Amino acid sequence: MEHSTVLLVDDEADLRDALAQGLELGGHNVHTYADGDTVLDHVNRTLYGVLVTDIRMPRNDGLTLMRRAFDIDPAFPVILITGHGDVPLAVEAMRAGAYDFMEKPFPASRLNDTVLRALHTRRLVLENRALRQALDEETGLIARLIGRTPVMQRLRSEVEALAEADVDVLLLGETGSGKEVVARALHDEGPRRDKPFVAINCGALPSDIIESELFGHEAGAFTGAIRQRIGKLEHAAGGTVFLDEIESMPLDLQVKLLRVIEQRSIERLGSNKAIPLDVRFVAATKVDLEEACADGRFRSDLYYRLNVVTVTVPPLRERKEDLPILFHHLAREARARFRREVPDFTPELMAALTAHDWPGNVRELRNVADRFVLGLSVGLDGEEPANAAEEGSEGSPLAQRVAAYERSLIAAEIKRQDGSLKATYEALGLSRKALYEKMKRYALDKDEVLSEPM
Q1: 29 or 447, which is more confident?
Q2: How far apart are CA 17 and CA 78, in angstroms?
Q3: Is the separation of the CB atoms in 373 and 335 below 8 Å?
Q4: Digit-coded pLDDT (tens) for 181-228
Q5: Average pLDDT, the chain
């Protein structure tokens, strides 16, 4: 990413020069302005930078400048500075979207630290936008088997080569790693794409009806068989049968499945008529089938019949570099399902995603993305609050006064609205999520607030 840029606006020449020197020593490219007339010419949606502006200036005030910057890019970080210690003004600025609010005088090191945090957030915003654009531009297998790591490139190459070959395939991979996604890609990218894709979880079929489910039956084949039933294998004619958790199939049924795969025909229960079967078999397992054969839990002849072509689906922990783009993709899917906007990704969230081991693989990541879009805790170790960046400045006296002032405003409004949180966040101009986060941050309990004396 390009060198960082700081746009510094202050009408006091000496202070402006001193702040610029400190920021330049911090390694930033600094542009200084005595007023805000031309600074916005440099603000755009791709700039890796931050705007630092005084609030009270003769020609332009910092709040107006900030709002005009947000018109160009609502996610552009703005740091406001003032020499007046105006707490209500600070609250207004933070509610309007300011990244931070600093009271003069302050050491150059503190401004530099704040700018670095703001730039860290800005970098994440720009990377998120780049990922969204990349997802929008991707088609075909790249859009289905998402990832840029070597293991995912290998997987896509294997699927592309095998899809047209129309051979039976055995998929190896841990629970939740995406074996069914790979199976569907093999089907959709191959010559059977216009025929059925029938997924069968071998571990979920009741043992007393599993044969009927797979092979179908004739009327009167057994008690309760009132009419003829087409089984799942026959229903898949011309298409693909995906046998998930193949290791869970009962041994006696493994014998019959082996015969079906070898002869490519089935017999419905209660019938002696062989029905030709034109399907492709894709089986999946999360265990070592060779070991299962040695233990007598899986038939070796079926294993060798399935093991003609093997594809390994990598676990998520082996491709953590794909986490950002994959999480974006899953969050966008959750947005469509829940009809919710996707919240901003924070550095703390991405750090927690990277640090996690993902024993549940992509399935676990999907659950995390769902909770994230719903505004719930994602439930990962190391997770920080959504407003962690804002909390970073709470050590300053001004920030403490701002927090106390905001807490009192919220408590007073809850009382005024007789405990109605909907009326409270509407009156304060907040979203429901924002109000709940602030109540949690300030340890505000509605019942306790209502019981406090006026």
Answers
A1: 29
A2: 19
A3: yes
A4: 999 999 999 999 999 999 999 888 777 678 888 888 888 878 777 888
A5: 85
Q: Is 213 helix (H, G, I), strand (E, B) or coil?
A: helix
Region 137-155: mean pLDDT is 85
| Per-residue buried b or exposed e for 34-71, using 16+ beta carbons within 10 Å of the residue's own CB | ebbeebbeebeeebebbbbbbbebeebebbebbeebbe
Q: What is the CA radius of gyration of the chain?
A: 30
**In whole angstroms, what is the distance from residue 39 CA to residue 5 CA?**
12
Give the C-alpha separation, 37 to 43, whole Å: 12
Structure tokens at 342: 């996707």
Other Cβ atoms within 10 Å of 408 Cβ, number? 11
Beta strands in 202-239 (DSSP E): 216-217, 229-230
pTM above 0.90, yes or no: no
Tokens representing residue 394 in the block: 């709470």
DSSP, residue by residue, 378-390: ---TT---TTHHH
* CA gap 51, 98 in Å, rounded: 10
Distance CA 421, CA 419 (A): 6
Amino acid at 445: D
Measure the CA angle with vertex 286, ends 283 and 292; round to 5°: 90
Residue 112's H or E segment, with its range, is helix 108-137
CB count in 10 Å sphere of residue 160: 16
How far is 325 from 239, CA to CA, in rounded Å? 31
- What values do phi and psi take at 36, rounded to 5? -95, 20
Residue 275 Cα distances to 117, 143, 215, 269, 425, angstroms: 68, 38, 10, 12, 66
Residue 282 pLDDT class (50, 70, 90 cuts): very high
